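Q: Second attempt. The first request was missing the SMILES, so the protein and manganese (II) ion are both included now.
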Amino acid sequence: MINFEPLADVVNNGKNFLITTHVNPDADAIGSEIALYFILKSLQKKINIVNYSSTPYYLQFLDPDNAIQQFNPEKHESLFSEVDVIIHVDLNRCSRTVKMEPYIKGSKALKIIIDHHEDPEDFHDHLIADTSYSSTGHIIYDFLEKTKITPISPDIAIPIYAAIMTDTGSFKYDRTTPRVHRIAAHLLEIGVNPTDVYRQIYDESKFTKYKLLGRGLESMTLFNDGNLAVMTIYQKDLAECDALETDTDGFINFCMGVEKVVVGLFFLELEDGFKASLRSKGNYSVHKLAALFGGGGHRNASGIRIRNHKMYEFKDKIIEETIIMINKGYDEVQN
Ligand SMILES: [Mn+2]
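A: Got both inputs this time. The predicted holo structure:
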């Protein structure tokens, strides 16, 4: 059980807040930022939200005030000395803020992490974290419920619902507990329209995404007797389909839909390196696998991002280590 008192103290006593999250933010990252923004706004605090990445088009509806700014060193440098609190949501490693990292680490502001990933880095003053939570949005909900610091308005309920819905894979992953459904029910009572939130995130995609998905599905390959599925997208595919990195969000799930597959790997070539998304079922821990290559995340969902190296230098090695992990059997820690 998380002790929310330190966070309540900071929220009550802080005056000038900076909120940020990880590179390529998902709906849990953006939803948690916006929920916090409306909480702090209701308490008349000064708030800036600054992210390294721009907000994906299908998440912009979560930011009705257009509060999120994209990081620009010239514009934001002074902010890091002006604010008295920096809150990092859905973030376990400061390097996941990319070029913001030196500014964050150099700032004298009080640093808070609100997160549910494994192995948080020690760069914080207060860690509000628990890996058993479905999402960071879920932690923020509990914070509100426990402390009653402000009522849960629809403005706060919508981004929290989006965070929980997406991080549970629309209420199907294994942290979809009765409690998660009770929270969702409460958020619906407050006024969240679940059809509308789902549609805006998943059913308003650009056609280019589906052209690119075709390339991804075509590339899918099975290894190790069919229990490992690998999908790959190259820069060439992005260019030819006129698609963006964010269009690949969710492609990994198609690897997990294949019978017998227990681990899925999605490789995306980037302009300055590559990223790999790792997913697993049950007790197979892709978090440990990702950690071998400097990545991290959760037991069943992790990521690796490597800059200044070509994808081919690492891809075979990552597949090799995945097969070793699968053949070793279940994660020894879980048994
Ligand atoms: Mn999350």
